[in-house]
Every structure is written in C-alpha cells, then in structure tokens.
Design brief:
By secondary structure, the protein is an alpha/beta fold. Helix content is 39%, strand content 17%. A hairpin with a 5-residue loop joins strand 18 and strand 19.
C-alpha cells in the first residue's frame, strides 16, 4: 500500500491475534484508525511515538484510545503493526522486542531479545524433564527457532505451558514448537512451516542481503504478514480476524495451492485441515496466471463440487478473496455444482430428454420402474429395492450399456451374489427400463453425465476451461470423474495444472465411490495429505474421530486412507454428552445451552444446531423461537452471517460450514440412523454401508464445531455415538 507520504502499512499475524483478545470497541477503534489512514493518509497521519527504553529504536507506539496502545515497527517507508494491548501491557511487551531479518527462513521475525515471560507451572518434581529437553539447540535453530527465543523454549514443561506462552513467541516459532510437541519429524516440520531444509543462495540476491523493504515482499514473509491493497480489503480482514483464511494460508496449505503440477494433483486431509481453503486459493492462483497472460484472455477456472449449497458458499467466499476474477467479463473463475453444469451444457446442445435430478421428473421415473416391475418376474430371492440399487450402483455408476459388459463386471461391495442366470434376467429388466425412460423423454443424472462425455469426446467443443478444481471429491461417482476428465482432457503437449482435486473419504456421506485412476485421472506422485486441523479443538477432533473407529476408507483412488497423525493445534473443553429422559427435556436443554454461551464473544449466528432429519430442524427452530431465541433455518443459498439468529440445518447442509459452537440433538438409538434410511437397505452389506454413511455424517457434523460441541439424546443412545475419544491409532 503506497500513500501520499510514501508509507506502507502492514500487519503481522501477531497483531491479528492480539486484536481478537481485546474488547470489541477497542478493536473497532483501531480498525477505524487504520481505514481512515488508508482513505486519507495526508489528513489522518499515524502519530507514532517512540517507546522509551526499548531495545529496538524502530519500535513505536500508537494511541488507540485513552487506555490502549498499538505497537509497530517503523523501518524506512514501512510501518508494521505487531501488537495491541492495554497501555502498560503494550509497553512491557514492546520493551525487549526487536525486528530480525532472518535469512535462514527468508522471513521478518519479531523476537524478544532477552528473557521471554513464560506462563508455566513448575514441574511436579525436580527430575521432571522439560518439554524440549531432548531437542538440541542446534536442531531447534535448524528448524527455524531464533537463538533469542531458546531460553524461553527451555523453560517450557508441557504443551499447556507452550499454549499459554503463545504470545511470547514469534508466530513461526510457535508453529515449529507445536509441531515438534505433536511428534512431527523434522521433514514434516519443514513441510508444515515452509522453512527450507537448505537455503540455496541466489548468486545475485541472497536472502542475507535483503533489506526490510525487500524481505516483506517475499513469499515466505507474506505467509504471516498482511499488506492490504485498499481500504475495503483492510476492513474485511479486520472483520474476519485471524481466522480469515482468505488472508492467511498456513505454509503447508500455501505450498499446495501456489505451485505448478505436471499433471492432475490431489489433496487429502481430515475435516478442518483447510482443503476447501486450498481449493479456493488454487482457483485464485490459476486465475491470476490467466489475468497476467494476454494470450490466455477468455480462459477460466472451473471450481465444482457435488452440492448446490456448498458451491454457493464457496462462491460467496471467493467474492471476498478475489472478487475481480468472478466479476471479470468473462469471469476467470466459474463456481457451479456439477449437476447444474451438466444441465446447462446439455441444454445448449439441445439434449432432447429431461434430466430427473429431482421433483416431478424423478416421480415420473419412479412410475416407469413400477410399470417395468409389473411386466417382469424378479429372479428368486431378489427384491425391487435390490434391483434398483443394482441399477444405480453398478449399471449406471459404471456406465454399462450392454448385457455382455454387465455379465463381466465386478460387483465388489454389493453383498448379495448373482450368478450368470440372475444377471441375464436382471439385464432384461434394465434394458426395458432404459428403453421406456427414453420413450418418456426422461434421463437419469448418470445418463446426462454420459451424454455430456460423449459430446465432449466426439465434438471436442471449444470449452473455455484451463483447469478444473474439484472440492469434496469423495461425494463424486465414476461418471462425474469421467466427465471432469473430459472437460479438460489430457493434452499431447502435457497435462500441466489441468486438474486439482481435494477430498476426504472419511467424510463420504452419499455412498458414492470411484477410483480416479480408473476414470482416466492419474494423480500418482502428486497426491498430498494435510494433517493439521486449524478449525476444531483437539478434544472435539478426538471425539469426532472416535465415531469412525473400525471404519475402513479408501484414498479416493486405489489405496486406503487413515486419520493417523491427524491433530489439532487448538485445545478446549471436551464435548458435552447429554442423555435426557425425553425429547421435550432434550429441546429445553438445547435452549438452555444456547443461552449459556457467552453473548459478549459468541454471536447467535456463530451457533449451529445440526439435525439428521429435516423434520427435526423445524422442531428445534420452533422450540428456540418459543423460548425467545432468534433462529435462521439454512436451506439453499449461502449463509449470510450478518443476519442474526442461531443456525439450524441438516447435517448434510452443514458440510462446508463452521461454527463457534455446535449442538447435535436427537441421537437416540431409535432416531439415528433414521429408521427410514435403514429400512431402505436391500441386504446386510447395504445396511452396513448406510450405517457407515451415518457415522461419516456424524463425524462431519461434529467437526463443524470450533470450540464447543454438545451431543444429546433421549432414552437409549445410538450405537454410533462414542462415549469418549478414540484410540491413539486414529489420532
């Protein structure tokens, strides 16, 4: 940011952290000062004062109001704010702090020159080792810990002490220490923090030669230092706070989003690890490349996902992250769920049949099935639901078009075996159904996907897409992945940056499975995994993982995945598990819990109540309204958090959302999984798949919570509800 008096103002992540701990009126006052300065720097100059007795002459203070001061470093044309606190606390904090230009990490560090005050309990015995006693100074410095902070590191006796001392450390140091305490290897710490294992000096410009003015522009420094481009961006970041991922990507996330790949790439990771964040930043990165290359005018990035609501939430967030790319004409980023994309594409191609995504068309297909079953005798031992499931999960999912293919296809995952005679009889039913659907002018979604693939393959239409990014890939089926590959086919000249896929099979809530390799998408050697949960406390994460105990999942390709090593950097209270005598008591308990949350720091819009069934959403909303608590029932469309009210929605709709506090009611044995879902099972294997889906659904719902989770039931609790954290093998 440049202004009339040649000053550039920036904010490090420590400033954002300190603002979050202050009264709202103080934070708003500071925000107003900064935005006024940006809008008119000449008239509203920053009156910085010298901090008497400070070790670094460049450290200054700014009067926020009568009782609060902001601390900044003024170096040449740069002013970097690093801390805001009460007057005396701010000055004590500033006293020994200094700027360090660190060539080893290529970052600007804010370190304390002398002893760091550490909030730490004494060990229970004199013989009790300190937290990092086994880690040599040489190793700590190699990982990126400044020598100035080693005395404070040596004073730590526990992770609790490390967390309490967070403000005393440079932000990068804290992340390094926490990763070490969590058991990360040195290589994993390097990957997480973005600190290079070996710095290869540029013969022309070595990091050691960089000035403050130059180092603040490095990619490494920008991971923890924010330089707003305009007043609007500055205000938005302040309003979002530290958790505004739109500004701060963690180094391990940034490395995945902002790099080139020589083929399709995949990012896996547990809930809260920032996969969607990475996907959105990836879209921005690729759109930036298009904008900067005049030869690529008109190209765009397609960001797609399975559900309409998640696509809308992503688009709303991108309008904050990079509105210029969505508002360009034509837009450089297009966000749309895949069903809608297919529908629009086929409409342009004058596809003659109506696609039965939902509604009346779906009801008409149900009638076609009834007519087919009236005219055919089912093979012995098979039911109508089984036949329809076989059609959906095998024939349609795999794109089978003739009897020969069906007789040969693997039915792995389907519980009831079928001999050749039964398969042949079933194919007669399938062929009749397909013919009748065509004659009725109807198509199933998989038919539409297959038709779109055929058009793309035969016509090679001139689509504008330079790349496709897929979020929540675990919800996509085989036809979806084949279509995605067809939208951006592999080029003879190479497949650079064509596909970027993120997902987590532990969050598969729709039962679809697909091997990307089998769909023409090769991510071998370009598959990465995120392991740090930045959303949820370790206590909530552990409980959510325990729900999946014993569940085996794939890695979205031909291998298996695990949550081993998946940890959170945050700590808090354990989930509140509440058994009630009746649903009336349970609903009253939810209202009481909402009122118990601190209103001064938790807005109603930051509270989510997630239900398995739509009918339960209405019951909860009515109960809260009768108690005088505002509610917002989330259905379609993005969630506008400026609208007050507790958010109430289904567990399915909650995917992609997060809340300070989450309540999950009605988890009794008789209600979860819902009886209707279990009745739809066609055999034991199908029933087990349904139970697994609801385990994943509960896992997804629990991981929407950042700080507080309440789980409740009436009567006997569901067998899917864990009574405590899972085994260490999962965590």
């Amino acid at each position: 940011m440049m202004d009339a008096i040649n000053k550039r103002v920036s904010y490090d992540i420590g400033c954002m952290k300190s603002l979050r701990k202050l009264p709202d009126k103080v934070a708003i006052r500071f925000m107003d000062l900064m935005t006024k300065y940006m809008s008119d720097p000449a008239a509203n100059g920053l009156n910085l004062e010298t901090v008497e007795g400070a070790k670094d002459s460049s450290i200054k203070s700014l009067r926020v109001d009568q009782g609060y001061r902001a601390i900044a470093f003024e170096v040449g044309r740069d002013i970097m704010f690093v801390h805001v606190n009460e007057h005396d606390k701010a000055y004590r904090w500033a006293g020994n702090r200094r700027i360090k230009l660190d060539p080893d990490t290529n970052r600007i560090r804010v370190v304390e020159e002398l002893d760091v005050t550490v909030v730490e309990a004494e060990p229970e015995s004199a013989d009790e080792p300190r937290l990092f006693a086994a880690v040599a100074d040489k190793r700590l410095k190699a990982l990126g810990v400044p020598a100035e902070e080693l005395p404070a590191v040596r004073a730590l006796a526990s992770i609790d002490g490390l967390e309490a001392a967070e403000e005393g450390f440079d932000p990068l140091t804290y992340q390094i220490l926490y990763a070490l305490a969590a058991g990360y290897s040195d290589e994993e710490v390097y990957a997480l923090t973005g600190v290079p294992e070996e710095t290869e000096a540029d013969p022309e410009t070595s990091p050691a030669d960089l000035t403050f003015d130059q180092m603040i522009e490095t990619e490494e420094s920008r991971q923890t230092i924010f330089i707003p481009e305009d007043e609007k961006e500055l205000r938005r970041v302040f309003e979002e706070g530290l958790e505004g991922w739109r500004v701060f990507l963690h180094p391990d996330q940034r490395k995945l989003a902002y790099r080139d790949y020589n083929g399709p790439a995949m990012v896996r990771g547990g809930a809260g690890t920032g996969k969607t964040v990475v996907a959105m930043h990836r879209a921005k990165h690729l759109a930036d490349q298009i904008e900067q290359d005049l030869t690529r005018a008109g190209q765009r990035v397609l960001l797609t996902t399975f559900t309409t609501s998640l696509a809308q939430d992503i688009e709303a967030n991108l309008r904050t992250l990079c509105p210029e790319h969505l508002e360009a004409r034509p837009p450089r980023i297009e966000v749309i769920n895949l069903d809608r994309w297919v529908s629009q594409f086929l409409k342009r191609k004058s596809f003659a049949r109506e696609v039965a995504f939902f509604g009346e068309a779906r009801e008409r297909l149900d009638q076609v099935w009834r007519e087919v079953f009236d005219d055919h005798e089912l093979p012995e031992g098979l039911s109508e639901p089984f036949v329809r499931a076989e059609w959906a999960q095998i024939v349609q999912a795999k794109g089978l078009m003739d009897q020969r293919a069906y007789l040969k296809v693997s039915r792995a995952g389907r519980g009831t075996p079928l001999d050749r005679r039964k398969r042949a009889a079933l194919w007669d039913i399938f062929a009749d159904y397909r013919a009748r659907a065509v004659s009725e002018g109807l198509a199933e979604p998989d038919d539409a996907y297959r038709e779109a693939i055929e058009i793309l393959s035969s016509e090679a239409p001139n689509l504008p897409y330079a790349a496709v990014i897929v979020d929540e890939a675990q919800d996509m089926g085989e036809q979806a992945f084949r279509l995605i590959r067809a939208i951006v086919p592999e080029s003879p000249k190479g497949d650079s940056n064509s596909l970027f896929i993120v997902g987590d099979a532990h969050q598969r809530i729709y039962g679809r499975r697909a091997s990307m390799a089998g769909c023409g998408i090769n991510v071998r050697g370009r598959s990465k995994r995120l392991r740090l949960n930045y959303r949820t406390t370790q206590e909530i994460r552990s409980w959510a993982v325990s729900v999946l105990e014993g569940v085996s999942v794939d890695d979205l390709d031909a291998g298996s995945d695990t949550l081993k090593g998946y940890v959170s950097l945050l700590h808090g209270v354990s989930p509140d598990l509440v058994g009630c005598t009746s649903e009336i008591e349970e609903l009253k308990g939810v209202s009481t819990w909402v009122r118990s949350l601190p209103s001064e720091s938790v807005r109603l819009s930051d509270i989510g109540i997630l239900c398995a069934r739509r009918a339960d959403v209405d019951r909860v909303s009515a109960a809260l309204l009768s108690d005088g608590i505002e509610t917002v029932v989330l259905q379609a469309g993005a969630d506008d958090r400026s609208v007050p009210g507790v958010r109430i929605t289904t567990m399915h709709r909650a995917k992609g959302l997060e809340f300070f506090a989450v309540a999950i009611p009605f988890l009794s044995e008789s209600a979860f999984p819902p009886p209707g879902a279990l009745k739809s099972a066609v055999d034991a294997a199908d029933r087990e798949d349904i139970v697994t889906q609801y385990r994943s659904l509960l896992h997804v719902a629990a991981t929407r919570a950042k700080k507080a989770l309440r789980v409740s039931w009436s009567g006997k609790v569901s067998g899917l509800v864990s009574s405590g954290p899972g085994p260490d093998s999962l965590g």
